[in-house]
Design brief:
Oligomer: single chain
Helix content: 25-40%
Bound molecules: pyridoxal-5'-phosphate
Shape: globular
CATH class of the largest domain: Alpha Beta
Structural class: alpha/beta
Order of helices and strands: HEEEHHEHEHHEHEHEHEEHHHEEHHEEH
CATH superfamily of the largest domain: Type I PLP-dependent aspartate aminotransferase-like (Major domain)
Number of strands: 14
CATH architecture of the largest domain: 3-Layer(aba) Sandwich
Largest sheet: 7 strands, mixed
CATH topology of the largest domain: Aspartate Aminotransferase, domain 2
Radius of gyration: 21 Å
Number of helices: 15
Distance between the termini: 31 Å
Strand content: 5-15%
Number of domains: 2
Length: about 425
């Protein structure tokens, strides 16, 4: 039965009609080598590829699947919604419902606008910040990824980092001229930039817990410092919580660290596996968006009723906050065990973890920014990835990515993963 490699067969056909055979670059396994796999179906903590092989999944669609694959309640909600119509281009009550849930969960968010991806959320939030302040420059951090909008493709981490594209072809230099890229966790650099660009900075945007250079938590005082600097300079502070929103806890990174942004970008989890993004924040800022204000932003499928249904089902389940305690416990246990196994195998690793998101860095030094992340042994990571794959565990296919524990991961899954990791690490 396993004599035909279906993954390979499909891949060979896919590369003929899709660039690289994939619709998002990191799926192509470029940084770890080998042919990508194709998924047939998933359930709970696991998915099955086209060869019929089952994997415990720690990528979880890059974060959205906090309840695991094909969660029964989410699937039922999606089916109910689809039965009533896939899209209208006219408002539905579901939009108000999810918007109210998000605003209630995140007190910094008085109003929210739905879009269809994280990329759209950050791009629109920055347009709004520029429209609101009347300024043009933005500050971002090296290794933080905010989607693929032109002016955000500078120092953009993960996919871009692994592919070794410093920027991107097709982005004219003037488009990133207003983008100031600083090292993550370096408040001094931010202070200097504000001195230099003072009245020209519209906003500072960051992942308040970085996930796209691998997991890097904010240094103590970093977020608080940014809040102070932004307020003093009259610039907006934008938290890109596309990963950390409803992941770092029900109130996201802003709740965890007690720092209030002016605008927040969301995505991933709030769509429960469907394409959803959102940006929101202070009402006086949000009211600058059309139709109330002069900042234009629109979307044919924005607030799509099927996507809203998946989001509502997911977020309402998370409102039972015991989910976070459980997934954090499992992630903590797993990371401790892997740290121990690495020690036994004589393989130096640094594990960064915030709640249920973590990265195993193959390095000897603490990873606090993109420069230290880049010192990792990516060849060793690639070997680890494939050794895990062989043992039925799918970890995110790049050194510079986060891994996620979902509510569907059982203690048996965690123990099996530890066992796989212990064996894999001995092979490195
Ligand atoms: C995934 C991600 C995005 C982009 O979201 P897409 O839905 O892929 O466009 C933006 N910011 C962060 C922090 C992300 O992790």
């Amino acid at each position: 039965m396993a004599s035909v490699n279906m993954n390979k067969k499909i891949y060979e056909k896919a590369v003929k009609v899709i660039p690289g055979g994939v619709n998002s670059p990191v799926r192509a396994f470029k940084s770890v080598g080998g042919d990508p796999i194709f998924v047939k179906h998933g359930k709970g903590s696991k998915f099955t590829d086209e060869n019929g092989r089952e994997y415990i999944d720690y990528c979880c669609s890059w974060g959205p699947l906090i309840l695991g694959h094909a969660d029964a309640r989410v699937v039922a909600a999606v089916k109910r919604a689809a039965d009533k119509g896939m899209s209208f281009g006219i408002s539905t009550a579901a939009e108000e419902c999810l918007a109210t849930m998000l605003c209630k969960a995140l007190p910094s968010m008085e109003k929210v606008r739905f879009v269809s991806s994280g990329t759209e959320a950050t791009m629109s939030a920055i347009r709004l910040a520029r429209g609101f302040t009347g300024r043009t420059r933005i500050i971002k951090f090296d290794g933080c990824y905010h989607g693929h909008a032109d002016f955000l493709l500078a120092g953009a981490g993960s996919g871009v980092a692994t592919l070794g594209i410093p920027d991107s072809a097709g982005v004219p230099a003037p488009f990133v001229k207003e983008t100031i890229v600083l090292p993550y966790n370096d408040l001094g650099a931010v202070k200097n930039a504000f001195k230099k660009h003072k009245d020209k900075v519209a906003c500072v945007i960051l992942e308040p817990i970085a996930g796209n250079m691998g997991v890097v938590p904010p240094a103590p005082g970093f977020l608080e410092g940014l809040r102070k600097e932004c307020t003093a300079a009259g610039a907006l502070l934008i938290f890109d919580e596309v990963i950390s929103g409803f992941r770092a806890g029900f109130t996201g990174a802003q709740g965890l660290f007690g720092v209030t942004p002016d605008l927040t970008c969301l995505g991933k989890i709030i769509g429960g596996g469907m394409p959803v993004g959102a940006y929101g924040g202070r009402a006086d800022i949000m009211d600058k968006i059309a139709p109330l204000g002069p900042v234009y932003q629109a979307g044919t499928l924005s607030g799509n009723p099927v996507a809203m249904a998946a989001g509502i089902a997911t977020v309402s389940r998370l409102a039972n906050k015991s989910v976070y305690k459980q997934i954090e416990q499992k992630a903590e246990f797993l990371c401790d065990e892997i740290q121990g196994a690495a020690g036994n195998a004589g393989v130096p690793v640094i594990i960064n973890r915030v709640g249920s998101m973590f990265t195993i860095f193959f390095t000897t030094e603490p990873v606090t920014d993109f420069a230290s992340a880049k010192k990792c042994d990516t060849k060793r990571f690639a070997k680890y990835f494939h050794e895990m794959l062989k043992r039925g565990v799918y970890v995110s296919p790049s050194q510079f990515e986060a891994n996620f524990v979902s509510a569907a991961h059982s203690w048996d899954d965690i123990r099996a993963t530890h066992k796989a990791a212990a064996a894999a690490l001995k092979k490195l």
